[in-house]
Automatic annotation (TrEMBL):
Transmembrane segments: 6-29, 50-73, 79-102, 130-151
Keywords assigned: Membrane, Transmembrane, Transmembrane helix
Domain Copper resistance protein D: 45-146
InterPro entries attached to this UniProt entry: Cu-R_CopD_dom
Highest taxon, organism lineage: Bacteria
Keyword Cytoplasm set for record: no
Name of the protein this chain belongs to: Copper resistance protein D domain-containing protein
Length: 152
């Protein structure tokens, strides 16, 4: 159980912390300093390095969360509302990431390869909105995880 909790926390920290850094620190600096060709290329390469970590986080979060829920606590009927909320929000976040990865991110990569900066800018805007939504959901999950059993 300790290993599952540690892996679960590590995976969530990597994913949510990465989104926080990208959205709150890197995005405004890149937008203020870089012209579209450099900015879009930067983001394409940043995502290329960050998304494997997100994939690993998704796998670890699903595996450890399901294992703790079913093997340790005996199933969904045995856990509190906070676990149901965490799982629901986590699955929503994963679905948003899947869409982000297979739609706007792929289109961003193709736009950068073609040097189609207007199209790349549109895709980066879509990615920004999806990451913003996921960041809010991720921070909400952190709040629920840390205090949920006392709140619900």
């Amino acid at each position: 159980m300790s290993l599952a909790i540690a892996l679960h926390l590590l995976a969530s920290t990597i994913w949510v912390g990465g989104m926080f850094f990208a959205y709150m620190a890197l995005r405004p600096v890149a937008a203020g300093l870089l012209e579209p060709p450099s900015r879009l290329t930067l983001w394409a390469r940043v995502f290329e390095h960050f998304f494997p970590w997100v994939w690993a986080s998704v796998i670890v979060l699903l595996g450890s969360g399901l294992w703790m829920t079913f093997a340790v606590f005996g199933g969904m009927a045995s856990v509190g509302l906070h676990v149901h909320l965490m799982m629901t929000l986590g699955v929503v976040m994963m679905l948003i990431f899947l869409h982000l990865y297979f739609a706007p991110y792929r289109k961003l990569i193709r736009a950068v390869e073609r040097e189609d900066w207007p199209s790349g800018g549109e895709q980066l805007g879509r990615i920004r909105r999806l990451v913003g939504i996921n960041l809010i959901l991720g921070l909400l999950v952190v709040i629920i995880a840390s205090g949920g059993r006392y709140l619900f």
